[in-house]
Amino acid sequence: MSAEAIAAISAIQEPSLSPSIAAGAGATPEADTFSSLVTGGIDKVNEQLMTGQVQLQQLAAGEPVNLHQVMIGLEESRMSFQLLMQVRNRLLEGYQEVMRMQL
Amino acid sequence: MDYSQTYAISAAGMNVERLRVDVAAMNLANANAPITVNGANYQPLQVVATATRAGSFGALVGGGLVGPQAVVQPSTLLPRQVLEPGHPAADAQGFVRYPGVDTTVEMMTLMSATRAYEANVSALNAARSMAMKALEIGGSK
After folding, report:
1. A20, A80, B55, B104: least buried by Cβ within 10 Å?
2. What ipTM was reported for this prediction?
3. CA nearest to A82 within chain B
4. Nearest residue on chain A to B13, alpha-carbon basis
5. Are B16 and B70 in contact (CB under 8 A)?
6. Is the pLDDT of residue A89 over 80?
7. Is residue B90 part of a domain?
């Protein structure tokens, strides 16, 4: 009776706590969530960079694109890239700190 | 990201100012094309900008800030009459009618639109430098 109840509760709570884990059942929840966060962020930055590139191509091809919108798109992608770089710097700092630890 | 909303607002403002410049250039370009009886006559245009949503500032923030919109409408200015007796489009009294474009007003529109565009760029740059400063939080140096 109680085991059934626990199973029922965990079946409810598990997807609501970590919706992205369902696909990768083998990996540990923390690693999967964090790596999916990083991958998603990188994908988003890449997408913005590609959008900027497409807009630049349209502008160069003489299509009626507003110049300021192209520049704003480029600026947004640059900002996302800077954010990505800052996250990477923090991660590397933490990693190097751990590697310097005396055992 | 929050700064992209600031970018979108400034972009909307820049769109309006670009439209004002385009319409002023169109008016100026067609100012000296005479109105003929059976020709393609030019009607002077004007840009009417509207705020997207009315209400208090708090309501605007809660519902998301959005920039202004603009529509192009024909203006109701009367044609100007110039005495040019030898002109093929002249009427019986020798008057030629031109679209009611006021060159001075159009030049003022050009100037104010340019300055407003610059103001929008400044606002965008301010938001950008704030975001860049925020990225420096906790930097090693």
Report:
1. B104
2. 0.73
3. B135
4. A68
5. yes
6. yes
7. no
